[in-house]
Predict the structure of DUF2726 domain-containing protein.
Amino acid sequence: MINIFIVVVILVVFFYITQKYVLKQEQPSQYQYRKKGSLLNMSEGAFFNALVEAVGQHGVVLAKVSMTSVIIPHKTKNKKQWFIANNQIAKSYFDYVVCDSRTLEPRVIIELDNGRELDKGKIERQKLIIQVCKSAGLPLIGANIKLSYQVGRLRRLLAAHIDLIEPDKEVRFCKRCGAPMVLKIATQGEFKGRRFFTCSRQPHCTYTENYNVVFEENEHPEQSDY
Ligand SMILES: [Zn+2]
């Protein structure tokens, strides 16, 4: 009899606690919030401006993009595995994402190195970003804060991933046979959606040229892809 009484008491207490502390918390109106101020700190903002300048009309720059907006785990037979994979990225974000200006499809991820020392959290974050970008086939640029003042260099780094030249202003001639070149858009493969030049005498001449070739000449960039 006493046992039943104890069980009932425990149930009542449990019910009371659930009502009071768990269920009530789900009402959003209960809490007050305040603005945090600028989305980016000074150095992040300076880099953002440089990035916008470098990309121009050729892409859209977004900052602090939630990882789950950009990537999603592969479907797994085991649902639990999927949730674990999703949890891994749920609270993280990408510093900057440069998207195609027409489709808003992410083209390249940029991670800003603020020059501060590596601590455990930072190392974990870097590992995660490198792993997820590699896994999802997203190009990743690790950028030094110095690039905020080197728009030209930033543009050359980006040129490997997005088309940065005005198409109608670009006239080229084949380096092999001298014939005019034709602008095309890759319809498949790794460079799908990217522009490239091909010789107008195809199939007699098979010369093709990277659209962004003007950015690939001169000086070695200090930065490199991961
Ligand atoms: Zn040719």
